[in-house]
From TrEMBL:
<dbReference type="InterPro" id="IPR008579">
    <property type="entry name" value="UGlyAH_Cupin_dom"/>
</dbReference>
<protein>
    <submittedName>
        <fullName>Cupin domain-containing protein</fullName>
    </submittedName>
</protein>
<feature type="domain" description="(S)-ureidoglycine aminohydrolase cupin">
    <location>
        <begin position="39"/>
        <end position="111"/>
    </location>
</feature>
<dbReference type="InterPro" id="IPR014710">
    <property type="entry name" value="RmlC-like_jellyroll"/>
</dbReference>
<dbReference type="Pfam" id="PF05899">
    <property type="entry name" value="Cupin_3"/>
</dbReference>
<dbReference type="InterPro" id="IPR011051">
    <property type="entry name" value="RmlC_Cupin_sf"/>
</dbReference>
């Protein structure tokens, strides 16, 4: 096994239910995290996130890479127009982004926080 490369081919993550730290502000959203990787120092995490419809208030302290596999959501940074994101979209959210994240249709996405 390499000290520099982690192959996740055989990963079988344990589902973590409703683990999001975000404040729910609309609907009754529920989340499932399938965390496939956590760095030794705990500063980086990657996996799959699933969320049912609802709305959250968000405050990003870390950088996040997202690749939507399913669903549709609207992310609205404070003071900016909403962004409509759907299956197939790939995007990055920078630390310091505050606003709302509204899941309109159940979302499934790959994520990396670093």
């Amino acid at each position: 096994m390499s000290d520099f490369i982690t192959v996740l081919r055989e990963t079988c993550p344990t589902p973590v239910l409703d683990a999001t730290k975000w404040k729910r502000i609309g609907g009754d959203p529920h989340t499932v995290n399938l965390n496939a990787y956590l760095s030794k120092d705990g500063s980086k995490i990657m996996g799959t996130w699933i969320c049912t419809p609802g709305k959250f208030e968000v405050n990003y302290e870390k950088w996040e890479y997202c690749h939507f596999l399913d669903g549709y959501c609207i992310i609205t940074p404070e003071g900016e127009p909403p962004l409509h994101l759907k299956a197939g979209d790939v995007f990055v959210i920078e630390p310091g982004m505050k606003g709302t994240w509204e899941v309109v249709e159940t979302v499934r996405k790959y994520f990396v926080f670093a």
